[in-house]
Every structure is written in structure tokens, then in C-alpha cells.
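Why do we care about 3D structure at all? Because function follows from shape, and shape follows, mostly, from sequence. That is the central idea of this module. The next example makes it concrete: a single protein chain, its amino acid sequence, and then its structure expressed as C-alpha cells.
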Amino acid sequence: MTKKPAKKSPEERRKEALMATAKYGGMAFELLGACLAGALIGRWVDAKMEMERPLFAVFLTILFLFVAFYMIYKQLLKD
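And the structure:
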């Protein structure tokens, strides 16, 4: 026979909601940070190499974004 889960108090539900918000909000900041890091490092490399087009900025931004997506994917699988 299956048991019904006990009802959670409003305080427990609020705490769980806050934890989920913090977790997924952190993932959003990971993506933002990866994009900014890739763009800034790429711009710096482009400036050092005196390139006419921002090739490294675009490449590194996309690379960092894919790495961040992979890291988030791994985090979500762990849960």
C-alpha cells in the first residue's frame, strides 16, 4: 500500500522554494559569467594580436558558453 507524503508546513515549503531559487539563480549567473569571461578574454587576445575582426572574442564566448552548459547539465543530472 502506498503512503501519502506528509503535508509540509508553510515554513518548510518556503525554505525549499528559496533553495530552488538560489540553485537555479546560481546557474543563470554561471552562464552570464561564462559569456562575460569568454568575451573579455577574447577581446584581450584580439587586441594583443591586433586582429581586425573579433575572432577570438566570438570563439571563446561560444566555447565558454558550451562549457557552462555542460557543467549545468552535469549539475542537473546529479540531482
